[in-house]
Fold this sequence. Notes:
About 20% of the residues lie in helices and about 45% in strands. The longest helix has 13 residues, at about 85-100. It has helices at about 85-100, 150-160, 165-180, and strands spanning about 5-15, 20-25, 35-40, 45-50, 50-55, 55-65, 70-75, 80, 100-110, 125-135, 145-150. By secondary structure, the protein is of the alpha+beta class.
Amino acid sequence: MGEKGEIVKEEKNFHGDIFDVVSRKIKTPDGLTVKRQVVLHGNAVAFIAPVQIDGQTKFALGTEYRAGLNEERTSFPAGLINDGEDPKTAALREAREELGLDYREAKEIFVITTSEGFTNEATHLMLLSDLVGKVDKDFDSSEFVKTIFVTFSELQAKIEAKSITTAPAIISYQWMKLHPEII
């Protein structure tokens, strides 16, 4: 982690359901004083969920409407980390809620940030393991996720065809290429 700046002044501009916007006056580590608007957003998890289907390892993908792009996107399953949760607990909960799959273990692979210039959100990429079985899905009231299971080669084809473009999916795919033991 790098050196932090000093927040000299902060004013809340907007409070929403899942994010806030603040204006900050910041003294940067290199001595500059800057004014920036920052989106304060809770951290999230995205996860690789392997499943054995017909003797093959397949991976869960979810297609969900995303308001920022006003369209559906396909990616590895993901969700916000609730207050009081750690990334492992959040990933296991999201797998139950969105996939209807109950895993015992979740291991952090990476933490990624994608828009540090204006938001503090970080996404914890997790690898789930030790599948216990199926449970009932339990979507949040404002979401619906269509789940498919794909082989690694099918995932690769979707990324190459640009039908999967999310950062967590592409980074997870690259990590999987480096760790063929999970494929």
